[in-house]
Specification:
Blueprint: E1 3-6, H1 21-29, E2 33-37, H2 48-53, E3 57-59, H3 63-66, E4 69-71, H4 78-83, E5 89-92, H5 100-108, E6 112-115, H6 130-149, E7 157-159, E8 162-164, E9 168-172, H7 176-187, E10 191-195, H8 202-207, E11 211-212, H9 233-248, E12 252-255, H10 270-274, E13 281-284, E14 301-303, E15 309-311, H11 321-339, E16 340-341, E17 344-345, H12 352-357, E18 358-361, E19 364-365, H13 368-377
Parallel strand pairs: 1-2, 1-4, 2-3, 4-5, 5-6, 9-10, 9-12, 10-11, 12-13, 13-15
Antiparallel strand pairs: 6-18, 7-8, 14-15, 16-17, 18-19
Helix pairs in contact: 1-11, 6-7, 6-11
The protein binds nicotinamide-adenine-dinucleotide.
Length: 378
């Protein structure tokens, strides 16, 4: 019987947990036993008692070295990685390019790592897609956060004291987070304009009630796998010129633009922010990959001299820990259910999901780009 361990997250600000009572029950149904570290669910409002009722035992850090399977949200520290027994399986977000020392330690210890951000974005793997489940929540929370910071209504209101015009929201990047932000801002009644370099999203934006800002696309912004490709500085300059007027009249700007494996493009320069209205709010959701706004600072909220509030919170999903944990836990359960036979994980590397998601296995780094980075770092 595989023993699963759910540790308490140690990273500052990480409120999520990698299993909830619902998924604990299902893991037990698969023939696994589950130990949850005491207080692991506290920040997601799940008591030890609730885990116990679902069939888990409540343990302590001993689980790190005992377990066959460890489920985590944030990447482990080197010290945590050192406690995992050889041959065990770790399922977690890994941000491998930022955690090469952790990857090295896990490889040395012969730990199989399934990195949640590597799950292929395919129809078959949709239920396992933690990037999407967390980005969607983050997009929703970005709008809610902007609405709380903004000193005005979002909807158009006709009141006894006269009419209030709707808030104007500009969203840059219409991937999973951006589209959820469009939907949320529309539900709150704002006028929403959206910029993306993938023409394919125009229809999706319009179906949500947003307006697509047309760009002079000489060539496609579509890269491999439906993602964006990196655009040249000339194009980005033209894009900024066009978007600049929309931004100058906006009450809220939410930026989510990312290019896989690259620094995020700068879409909002200092000059553009200077032209914005006092009291306007910018939420830079790409802040961890270098930021879409020239002025945003990681995990800081700043107010510029002209009164623009720029918020650069990296982990917005963690501000909704209950649903973030529920969805993430279901993503892990779905992956583990897919890979297991009779409660034991099987790795058929011919399988697209296993092959795509395995970061390390058998003492080697299986993920090509990470292996390259590690060679460069040696
Ligand atoms: P992402 O986080 O990598 O990027 C966010 C958005 O930024 C993208 O829409 C991208 O086009 C945009 N962008 C990049 N450069 C830009 C620029 N200069 N200006 C404006 N926008 C810019 O994206 P994501 O949310 O991970 O989604 C990427 C794609 O993957 C989407 O097409 C999504 O529908 C698709 N997807 C498919 C599945 C599936 O099939 N199971 C699951 C999830 C996502």
């Amino acid at each position: 019987m595989s023993r699963v361990f759910i540790p308490q997250e140690s990273q500052i600000g990480e409120t999520r947990v990698a299993a909830v009572p619902e998924t604990v029950k299902k893991l037990i149904d698969l023939g696994m036993s589950v130990m949850v570290e005491a207080d692991a669910g506290r920040r997601a409002h799940i008591t030890d008692e609730a885990y116990r009722k679902a069939g888990a035992t409540i343990g302590d850090a001993i689980g790190w070295s005992d377990a066959d399977l460890i489920f985590k949200v944030a990447p482990p520290t080197v010290e945590e990685a050192s406690r995992i027994k050889g041959g065990a399986v770790l399922v977690s977000f890994m941000a491998p390019h930022r955690n090469l020392d952790v990857v090295r330690r896990l490889t040395e210890r012969n730990v199989t790592v399934l990195a949640m951000e590597l799950i292929p974005r395919t129809t078959l793997a949709q239920t396992m897609d933690a990037l999407s489940s967390q980005a969607s929540l983050a997009g929703y929370k970005a709008v809610v956060l902007a609405a709380t910071r903004l000193g005005k209504y979002f909807p158009l209101l006709m009141t006894a004291a006269g009419t209030i015009p709707p808030a104007r929201v500009v969203i840059m990047g219409a991937g999973v987070a951006g589209l959820q932000a469009v939907a949320t801002a529309k539900r709150l009644g704002a006028v929403v304009e959206v910029s993306d370099i993938r023409q394919a999203v125009k229809e999706q934006i319009e179906s949500l009630g947003g307006r697509f800002i047309e760009l002079p696309m000489q060539e496609t912004g579509e890269g491999a796998g439906g993602y964006a490709r990196e655009m040249g500085e000339d194009f980005l300059r033209k894009q900024r010129e066009i978007v600049s007027n929309h931004v100058a009249h906006a009450d809220v700007v939410i930026t989510t633009a990312q290019v896989p494996g690259k620094k995020a493009p700068v879409l909002l320069t200092r000059d553009m922010v200077q032209r914005m209205r006092p009291g306007a709010v910018v939420i830079d959701m790409a802040v961890e990959s270098g930021g879409n706004c020239e002025l945003s600072k990681l995990d800081e909220e700043i107010v510029t001299e002209n009164g623009v509030n720029i918020i650069g919170i990296a982990n917005l999903a963690a501000t909704a820990p209950s649903d973030a944990s529920l969805l993430y836990s279901r993503n892990i359960l779905s992956l583990v259910s897919y890979l297991q036979k009779e409660g034991e994980l099987r790795f058929d590397m011919e399988d697209e999901i296993a092959d795509g998601t395995v970061l390390t296995r058998g003492g080697v780094v299986h993920h090509g780009p990470t292996a390259e980075l590690m060679k460069g770092a040696n």
